[in-house]
Amino acid sequence: MRHSLEGLITHDDITEIAETEKLILQDDIRISILKAMHSIDVQACPGSGKTTLIATKLILLAKKWNYPHQGICVLSHTNVAKDEIIDRLQRSKSKVAQRLLSYPHFIGTIQEFVHRFLALPYIRSSGVSDITVDNDTYAKQAVKLLELAQFSWFKATLSGLGNTEKQEAFFRGSFRYISQNGEEINIDKKSKAWKSDNNFQKAISDLNRLKNYLDKRGVFLFRDMYIQADKACTNNIELAKVIRTRFPFILIDEMQDTQKFQDELLCKIFPFNQNSIIQRFGDPDQSIFNSIGTEEPNQSFNGKLRDQMDYIIHKSHRFDGALSEKINRLSFNEIPLETELTETSLLDRAQAHISGNKFTHTIILFNDDTCEKVIEYFAQIISNQFADKYKKDKKFTVKVVGAVGAEITPDKDQFRLGHYWPDFDKAKSKVNFKESCFIDAVRHCQQNSSIDLADNYKFLLTCILKIMRMSNITDDDGRNFTNSTLREYLIKKDSWARFRKGLFYLLTETEATQLIRWVQACSILSSLIGLLDISAETREYMAFNASSKPMRTEQAPTLASSKDNTISHVDGFHIELSTIHAVKGETHDATLVVETKNHTFDMQAMLPYLTGELPSIAHPNSNLKDKPNSRKSNKVFMRQFYVAMSRPRHLLCLALHADRISDEQTQLLRESGWQVETI
């Protein structure tokens, strides 16, 4: 099959599809990739049009494919990447592209491929027909099994982990995997009762019996399916050969995100030394999902340096030369990132600037007192540089991103997204607010009405339930009211509509906190919930307090928190806060990358690369080659910042603490084209 595909795609085919699909396909690298009918690895830089290139190649193949029972297998790591490829094929002007969406071809995620062609048929062959593959379902059923007598000892030892939620988390991570010692079960956290070797071995034995019990009933973790797939190949040595015959051409997208266990299975089915054509596309410089949990990243692709790749697409149509020069300093593989924008495209892009000029990429320096003013400062830069029609466009995208977005733990040495904007974790901020009285709660909700009315409604309802507990008002069974039982109680009294109307009045009308209105509102509320004999504690909690003030805020009047971690600006645009991992694959108009800390201040560690003081970690002359710990952490930071800094098409800003940058570094950055400003 391999030899019969050689020369399948010609230069004339490429010229024709470029005209049909309105594509520009003139560079030698892309043309060579489209023509290639042998196994290749392709590193594609951010904004290189990788998905368009893949879809174009698939359409070219579809036009020439004459094998009724053999197909093209297209694999991706995520549903997003898969859907994007399918969408490109469906929008193609070439009707033959639709053929790839059905037999004998396959387009799906690696997980879907493993299910359909390996794991599920193997499980069914053992007599199990009703199969569920879902981590949450698996965890809940596993916890229920602990009630069986045969797992009583295991239940007792597992209780050392904590409540049901923590036990379910344990089971979600209890997948089978293959190690040098054979098949093992992953354990993320050991119970306190497993300290002795004997107890641990017995627990492993019990866990294995429990998993076998679920296996026979067709309940599996997603990760377990790879073991089932491996068993299918091991027990039927002809299976892999049959699959290779079915799929002589394999194309893998987003290869950098493929985990080691996935890569090993794929290599077992489609080895490079066989007749199958395997073409892998990705960018090791953007492999930020490496080592998720206990998993290891693939090495067959991500371990390759620049010179080991068959093809490198280093030209991007996302950003101009000034921005690409700044980003490529963080390329681990030292890819010479260049712009592919034409002079005409650059002139069109200049219209986004308020004066038709080039955007000023800025490094914002702050101190302990001005950290919470960073986003306001960034917003002002956007307001000053972007033309009004772009700022007000619904597609205008602005994001603030950082590596660490977890909740802030008080009294811990941390630096996270929430330090720049306290409302980043809105649920957490509401939990931390403790009202001193009922009117405090109402004023708090009114002031934060732009965040989420539903959340404020729930918070105020919680305060009303607190009032009922203070006055010992219980339901017919003598239990404290809950949200649902209070609703049922008021519906029976035909008071629910009036109660909700009163609640929304308190949430939205500032007059409600004036003395006369407040007394009237509390009187109506007391009547609705049956508050007759008001205790001294309740009376004090519901009393009018003229000195009660809204919660102090440091937010500038030009900015306001909205829902879903979004900030509204008076100019009409929104700024979304997110982690670096969450924005991978996105394109923004403007991006602010902020410094965070996970053991080490990440941006401080990257400064020597941004300034040019240090070459890439992969460079043979790098002075980190004898410092493995620094090398490892900096490699992670480098790839994270490469992803973050390559999101915007127009404006890039960075923010870090003024104490973590020297005067010499500031000067070097200015010489590299950065504007450096201090709040």
How would you describe the overall organization of this protein?
- InterPro entries: DNA_helicase_UvrD/REP (IPR000212), P-loop_NTPase (IPR027417), UvrD-like_ATP-bd (IPR014016).
- GO terms for molecular function: ATP binding; DNA binding; DNA helicase activity; hydrolase activity.
- Keywords: ATP-binding, Helicase, Hydrolase, Nucleotide-binding.
- This is UvrD-like helicase ATP-binding domain-containing protein.
- The protein is of the alpha/beta class and 679 residues long.
- It is built from 28 helices and 22 strands.
- It folds into 4 domains: 187 residues, P-loop containing nucleotide triphosphate hydrolases (Rossmann fold, 3-Layer(aba) Sandwich), CATH 3.40.50; 87 residues, no CATH class; 220 residues, Rossmann fold, CATH 3.40.50; 109 residues, no CATH class.
- β19 and β20 form a beta hairpin.
- The longest helix has 20 residues.
Summarize this structure briefly.
It comes from Limnobaculum zhutongyuii. Helix 19 packs antiparallel against helix 20 (453-470). The chain is an alpha/beta fold and 679 residues long.
In CATH's first tier, which class of the largest domain applies?
Alpha Beta
Under the CATH scheme, the architecture of the largest domain is 3-Layer(aba) Sandwich
Give the number of helices: 28
Count of the separate structural domains: 4
Radius of gyration based on Cα positions: 30 Å
Unreliable residue stretches: 426-432, 548-556, 619-632
Strand content: 5-15%
Approximate shape: globular
Helix content: 40-55%
Give the beta-strand count: 22
What strand line-up does the widest sheet have? 15-16-17-14-18-21-13-22
Instruction: Give the helix/strand class.
Output: alpha/beta
CATH topology of the largest domain: Rossmann fold
Q: Give the terminus-to-terminus CA distance.
A: 64 Å
Integer average pLDDT: 85
Question: For the report, how would you describe the main beta sheet?
Answer: 8 strands, mixed
